Amino acid sequence: MSIDNVFRIAVLVFCCALFSAAQQEGVKHVPIQRTSAASAQEMFTTYCAVCHGKDAKGDGPAASAL
Fold it and tell me: DSSP of 12-63, one letter per residue?
């Protein structure tokens, strides 16, 4: 294997590690809260608004991680 190929592989591995680390930040894992099935608004706020946003426009706090 030539020096050029070793260098290219090293750069590729570094970039993959950097990209992987960048994707893991920003999502806070919390237990799911149980909600009443009789309240659609409560269910949306608990289960959907994290990604979709409170106005359902896709601007929730976890949307950038998807």
Answer: HHHHHHHHHHHHHTT----PPPP--TT-HHHHIIIIIHHHHTTTTSS--TTG
The structure's pTM equals: 0.47
Could you give the CA distance from residue 20 to residue 14 in angstroms, rounded to a whole number?
A: 10
Return the structure tokens found at 30: 């919390």
Distance between CA atoms of residues 44 and 46, nearest Å: 5
Quick: pLDDT tens for 34-49. Answer: 888 899 999 898 889 9
3-state secondary structure of 3: helix
